[in-house]
Amino acid sequence: MDQFMSAKIIDGKAIAENLLQDLKKEIDVRSKKGIRNPSLAVVLIGSNPASSIYVKNKRLACEKIGVKSIAYDLPNETSEKELLTLIETLNNDTSIDGILVQSPLPSHINNDVIFENISPLKDVDGFHPKNIGLLAIKRPQLRSCTPYGVMKLIKATQLAIQGLDAIVVGSSNHVGRPMALELLLGGCTVTICNRYTQKLQQKIELADIVVAAAGIPDMIKGSWIKPGAIAIDIGINRVESGKIIGDIEFDIAKTRAGFITPVPGGVGPMTVATLMENTLLAQKLSTQ
Questions:
Q1: Domain(s) of CATH 3.40.50.10860: residues in the chain
Q2: pTM of the predicted protein model
Q3: Which of 65, 89, 141, 260 is the most buried (most CB within 10 A)?
């Protein structure tokens, strides 16, 4: 890769907007053929401020492209059993194409149990073990929204990524692990790092693609980024000043990277747009 004086900013908002417009056109065409618009059940438990913002953005995206959004805003004291009963009802409701349960859930509810009980064909977040497994065996169906959105951002650079060395910092079930699988599917040689990883700096310095998903502000120093590399920052961290920053030290990294995503305005909008794409796909899967 050639060295750049300053990175090209990957505009997640613009790329996401283009995807949403394409989805709207497809939904409109299907509607004219007599196919009902896709529907998404959005379950929000409690009043976590960040979760409320995410859910609002998802509902606005639904409105924008013609996806019917059905809101289930439940109190924080909702029990795991009550939530599972609702999910069973939604699984069996043929008018519902996608089910989204906003995380994090209250501490008395087991996230894994909830996500495993959502029908894999309605799992628009791409969290169900079956959907992660299909990605692992190179037969992706409903893909984890954030990693899939990241692949769309990387594609927008128009760089060929087959054979490149990629590193994913963070190994969570819903982001880091499926992100590594997506990069493998794209033909990269992938290293995935966790809290036990040794010599992290040296590994990052060699990477052609760096995807940060640790949730630790400025954890990855800008000086570690290989000149010309693609730097993707999934981290969203609110610091004491109130400012939202990522996991990568942006101001320095942008002087070294070839392409970089901003925080906010990078990965976040793509996650929402990919969720909309999954909702339309879920509707198609239900009629196959």
A1: 34-119
A2: 0.95
A3: 260
